[in-house]
Design goal:
Elements (H helix, E strand, L loop, with lengths): L6 E7 L3 H8 L3 H22 L6 E2 L8 E6 L1 H8 L4 E6 L5
Antiparallel strand pairs: 1-3, 1-4, 2-3
Helix pairs in contact: 1-2
Length: 95
Amino acid sequence: MAKQQQEVYFVFMKFDPDYERLRADRSKEGSARLDAYLSHKHDKLLAKLLQPDSYRKRSSLAIVDGFPVEITEDQASVLRSAKEVRVVEKNQELA
């Protein structure tokens, strides 16, 4: 059986009161706390649901509480079923 090709998907999280509280602090320190919080939260979700070394998270996006990740379609389906996830969308190239 051929290995599925990985593509970039965007994962957007459901409402998180901690994210909203941290995002409200617009100071430099507040921004650093938000970035660290989201990176840890997103990494933890991926580690809980997917096999180690089977994906590559590109970054965490503080403005939307989401992240781009290189995964297969099967892995995208797994993420879509997570209670913390609002939506998983495949990256679309614009012509």
